[in-house]
Design a protein that fits this description.
Largest sheet: none
Oligomer: single chain
Distance between the termini: 39 Å
Strand content: under 5%
Number of helices: 3
Order of helices and strands: HHH
Structural class: mainly alpha
Mean pLDDT: 92
Length: 66
C-alpha cells in the first residue's frame, strides 16, 4: 500500500478483495483485518470497508431469496 501510487494501490486492493466469496467468513476475516489495521491507512480502510459492504449486501440479498 505505501509503496504504490494511490491509483495502483486502489486497483490492487479492489482487485484482490474476495468480493465474490459472499460468506460470513469473508466478512469476519475483513473485520479482523480492519481491527489489525487500526487508523494507520484511512484510504485503505475506506476501500476495504466499501468492499466489505458489498459482501454484506450480497449476503442480505441471498437471505431474502431463500
Amino acid at each position: 500500500w505505501s509503496t504504490r501510487t494511490h491509483e495502483i494501490a486502489q486497483q490492487i486492493v479492489t482487485g484482490l478483495y474476495p468480493s465474490r466469496l459472499t460468506t460470513q467468513a469473508t466478512v469476519d476475516a475483513t473485520d479482523a483485518f480492519l481491527e489489525s489495521l487500526g487508523d494507520e491507512a484511512p484510504s485503505l480502510r475506506r476501500l476495504i470497508l466499501e468492499s466489505r459492504d458489498g459482501v454484506v449486501r450480497a449476503l442480505k440479498a441471498q437471505a431474502v431469496d431463500k
